[in-house]
From TrEMBL:
<feature type="binding site" description="in other chain">
    <location>
        <position position="158"/>
    </location>
    <ligand>
        <name>substrate</name>
    </ligand>
</feature>
<feature type="site" description="Important for catalysis">
    <location>
        <position position="89"/>
    </location>
</feature>
<comment type="pathway">
    <text>Quinol/quinone metabolism; menaquinone biosynthesis.</text>
</comment>
<comment type="pathway">
    <text>Quinol/quinone metabolism; 1,4-dihydroxy-2-naphthoate biosynthesis; 1,4-dihydroxy-2-naphthoate from chorismate: step 6/7.</text>
</comment>
<comment type="function">
    <text>Converts o-succinylbenzoyl-CoA (OSB-CoA) to 1,4-dihydroxy-2-naphthoyl-CoA (DHNA-CoA).</text>
</comment>
<dbReference type="InterPro" id="IPR014748">
    <property type="entry name" value="Enoyl-CoA_hydra_C"/>
</dbReference>
<feature type="region of interest" description="Disordered">
    <location>
        <begin position="262"/>
        <end position="282"/>
    </location>
</feature>
<feature type="binding site" description="in other chain">
    <location>
        <begin position="77"/>
        <end position="81"/>
    </location>
    <ligand>
        <name>substrate</name>
    </ligand>
</feature>
<protein>
    <recommendedName>
        <fullName>1,4-dihydroxy-2-naphthoyl-CoA synthase</fullName>
        <ecNumber>4.1.3.36</ecNumber>
    </recommendedName>
</protein>
<dbReference type="Pfam" id="PF00378">
    <property type="entry name" value="ECH_1"/>
</dbReference>
<comment type="similarity">
    <text>Belongs to the enoyl-CoA hydratase/isomerase family. MenB subfamily.</text>
</comment>
<feature type="binding site">
    <location>
        <position position="255"/>
    </location>
    <ligand>
        <name>substrate</name>
    </ligand>
</feature>
<feature type="binding site" description="in other chain">
    <location>
        <position position="152"/>
    </location>
    <ligand>
        <name>substrate</name>
    </ligand>
</feature>
<dbReference type="GO" id="GO:0008935">
    <property type="term" value="F:1,4-dihydroxy-2-naphthoyl-CoA synthase activity"/>
</dbReference>
<dbReference type="InterPro" id="IPR029045">
    <property type="entry name" value="ClpP/crotonase-like_dom_sf"/>
</dbReference>
<dbReference type="GO" id="GO:0009234">
    <property type="term" value="P:menaquinone biosynthetic process"/>
</dbReference>
<keyword id="KW-0474">Menaquinone biosynthesis</keyword>
Length: 282
């Protein structure tokens, strides 16, 4: 199925109930599609999002991912409070049928952080609760002028002590992060931009056009350089896990060198490796 939005011919693929996965011009667009609940997520939504982000990661044609919500009323209103059980969120899967709730948005947050391609959050309307945390986890955020941001946890009996707390604090500063969580106020797009939580604010009718323009600009850049910069920025705040990702990238680059390939070839050819050919760099 093809949909033309802001001059882009989006090609839909995948079999999903709660999300939409589309690609065009080297961009993947992943949309939470539960507008009747302001795009609140349930476990099923999160499993589908993980699948779609994996598809975008594995597609070598895709260089940038746009993450958004259906309609112009909300990007995402966090966890679906209507299916919240006593220990997490319920669904139709076998785990839920045993009466065990899930808290699986954290897996998605980690996936977005580790994904070696820029993820741009495109926010119209609400980015609230776990929805705001998701946009904080994205590399960039483009907001429409009708966007509203905030945390609700202490109001609805929840909190996010992971990225939702300390990555938010790293993004907006400690005092502001405390204000956001302790008071549960809602902030306009312009206020969110001033506190460093979004990159730019545009009129709602120009939201997708602007987001695609940012994606196209990134697609002109070196994919490996973008990957390394994302890994480097996240490594500092992700500690050992971030360093592990960065170390993996270093190994990948080394594998691509003649020097590493000499080691592999020598083993396969049952000879001594000729590493003398390679410079001992200063
Ligand atoms: C966002 C609002 C302020 C918008 O208000 P308004 O414009 O007046 O619209 P409404 O009439 O309220 O909403 C329209 C419609 O949508 C339904 N809805 C909205 N949000 C949700 C939701 N989150 N869940 C279920 N349904 C929702 C609403 O009920 C209406 O439908 P009706 O049929 O008319 O009833 C306002 O809607 C609002 O405040 N929403 C709730 C925001 C919220 O509190 N979100 C949850 C925060 S907690 C969270 O996100 C989970 C955290 C989490 O994920 C997590 C954290 C740490 C570890 C693990 C996890 C994890 O994995 O879960």
């Amino acid at each position: 199925m093809t949909a033309v939005v802001s001059g882009v011919e989006w090609q839909r693929s995948g079999e999903y109930a709660d999300i939409i996965y589309e690609t065009a011009e080297g961009i993947a667009k992943i949309t939470i599609n539960r507008p009747e609940r302001h795009n609140a997520f349930r476990p099923q939504t999160l499993f589908e999002l993980q699948d779609a982000f994996n598809a975008a990661r594995d597609d070598s044609e895709v260089g940038v991912i746009i993450f958004t919500g259906a309609g112009d009323q909300a990007f995402c209103s966090g966890g679906d409070q209507k299916i919240r059980g006593d220990d997490g969120y319920m669904g139709d899967d076998t785990v839920a049928r045993q009466g065990i709730g899930r808290l699986n948005v954290l897996d998605l947050q980690v996936q977005i952080r580790r994904l070696p391609k820029p993820v741009v959050c495109m926010v119209a309307g609400w980015a609230i609760g776990g929805g705001n945390v998701l946009q904080v986890c994205c590399d960039l955020t483009i907001a429409a002028d009708n966007a509203r941001f905030g945390q609700t946890g202490p109001k609805v009996g929840s909190f996010d002590g992971g990225y939702g707390s300390w990555l938010l604090a790293q993004t907006v500063g400690l005092k502001k992060a405390r204000e956001i969580w302790y008071l549960c106020r809602q902030y306009t797009a312009e206020e969110a931009r001033e506190m460093g939580m979004v990159n730019t604010v545009v009129p709602l009718e120009r939201l997708e056009e602007e987001t695609v323009a940012w994606a196209r600009e990134m697609l002109e850049k070196s994919p490996l350089a973008l990957r390394m910069v994302k890994g480097a920025i996240n490594a500092v705040s992700d500690g050992a896990a971030g360093m592990q990702q960065f170390a993996g990238d270093a190994t990948m680059l080394y594998y691509m060198s003649d020097e590493a390939q000499e080691g592999r070839d020598a083993f396969k050819e049952k000879r001594r490796p000729e590493f003398d050919r390679f410079p001992r760099r200063p």
